[in-house]
C-alpha cells in the first residue's frame, strides 16, 4: 500500500495552468486595490488561475526575448514563451498567482498566457 501511494504521488499529473479555466476574472486596477490587504488576498488567490486586463507599463527582456511584463506598474507576469507586446498596450492575461512581493509592492504571476490584445 505504501508503495502504491508513493507511486501515485510521484506520477501524479501536473496541473496545466495554460489550459485551465480562470478561477477569477478581474481588472488589473481592482486586483491592485485588493492588495492593500496583502495577507488576506495572498491566501485567497494563492496558486489560483486569474485572468485580468491591464496596460503594459514595462517589458523585461533577456537576450532579446521577452521574459516578463509589468502591468499597471504593480502586476508582474512571467512568460515561458517569447510574446509580441509593447509598452502602453492594453492586454488580457491569464496566469497563476505566485506571490505578493512586499519589497517591490508587486503582485507576481507565473505561467502567464496572453488571452487577447
Describe what you observe in this structure:
It is a single chain. The protein is of the alpha/beta class and 117 residues long. The chain has one domain: OB fold (Dihydrolipoamide Acetyltransferase, E2P) (Beta Barrel). It is 21% helix and 44% strand. It has three helices and six strands; from the N terminus they run αβααβββββ. The protein has helices spanning 2-10, 28-34, 38-45, and strands at residues 24-27, 49-62, 65-71, 75-78, 90-101, 106-116. It has a five-stranded mixed barrel. It is globular, with a radius of gyration of 16 Å. The mean pLDDT is 89.
Secondary structure elements and their pairing?
Blueprint (H helix, E strand, L loop, with lengths): L1 H9 L13 E4 H7 L3 H8 L3 E14 L2 E7 L3 E4 L11 E12 L4 E11 L1
| Total of domains | 1
CATH evolutionary superfamily = Nucleic acid-binding proteins
**Radius of gyration computed on alpha carbons:** 16 Å
Biggest sheet layout: 5 strands, mixed, barrel
What distance lies between the first and last C-alpha atoms, to the nearest angstrom? Answer: 50 Å
Structural class computed from helices and strand pairing: alpha/beta
Instruction: Please state the second-level CATH architecture.
Output: Beta Barrel
N-to-C SSE series?
A: HEHHEEEEE
**Strand share of the residues?**
35-45%
Give the helix level as a range of percent: 10-25%
Strand order of the largest sheet: 2-3-4-6-5
Query: What are the segments in which pLDDT stays under 50 over at least 5 consecutive residues?
Result: none
What is the highest CATH level, the class? Mainly Beta
Number of distinct helices = 3
Number of strands: 6
What is the CATH third-level topology name?
OB fold (Dihydrolipoamide Acetyltransferase, E2P)
Mean of the pLDDT scores?
89
User: What is the overall silhouette?
Assistant: globular
